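Researcher: For the annotation table, I need structure tokens for Ornithine cyclodeaminase family protein. Please keep the output clean. Sequence:
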Amino acid sequence: MLDVEALALTDHEIIGAVEAGLAAQGRKETVIEPRMHLQPGVANGHFNVLRGAFRAPINLAGVKVIGDFVDNYKEGLPSELGLLLLMDPGNGVPKAIIDGSHLTDMRTGAVTAIGAKYLARKGSKVLGHIGARGTAYWNVRLLDSLFDFDEIRVHSRRKESRDAFGARLSADLGKRVIVTEDWRSCVEGADIVVEASRLNQPEPMLRTEWIKPGAFVVPYGTMSAVELSLTDIMSKLVVDDWGQCKTGQFGSLRAHVEAGKLSEQTLHAEMGEIVAGLKPGREREDETILFWHRGLSLSDIALGHFMLEKAQRLGLGQRLRYA
């Protein structure tokens, strides 16, 4: 059993591990199956079940089960709690059980940051971030590690949540963070816009008209918070994995897929293809680009692999008997 926090991963380590996993996906050195959902029907939430495998040199298969329960804050719990199981793809032997909560937060933030690395303007200096859940912290932290923003704006539905989020970021990043009272003042005119809201049902809260030309936009809420017209202004549409984005009942661009606005014909690339150098990322300053990532099992496994190797070097973790 591996305690993620004890590893004290650096921003560079997190991004590097996930980026290596994306590159392997782009080179088709992986197997990935679309996520599945288990809805127990007794609370406002569901479980995500993610599955995938890497060939050498990572040489691991993995299954992550993680909950997504919107009202957990009322019990003082994170909305996302879960576990990652890593196994040998050659014989099925379990290799490690890793806390999936912190891992999910970090790998999600890394995918957002890697997307910006390849798709945002190099001179991006203003970030607008909607949402204050666990993944939000790592979105902002890892993005700032790459861009050193002049202005960071954050907003979320509950005042106590957004105020605490802004204070934590300001303390950890050593710079002022602007907590806004509404969506518009948070995202309008920003160079990079991340929408990680927690809506109970789809509602167009982020307006297309607020997105400036040349911006990089990352919507990944479980329920859509964007207008159907958002994809119309985009020069490029990028996803993490088309197989899982084109199916399922959840996701920020589900309506866009159903309407044909996002399809195999309109899709520019999967992120792994760009990281692997097989397709171009941003090519012009005036391109307005959208990146939708639903969350990859491969990112979980790639980061889990790095964690396992670091734990072995540092002598961390607990050995469990398996027979």
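Researcher: And a one-line annotation?
Model: The mean pLDDT is 94.
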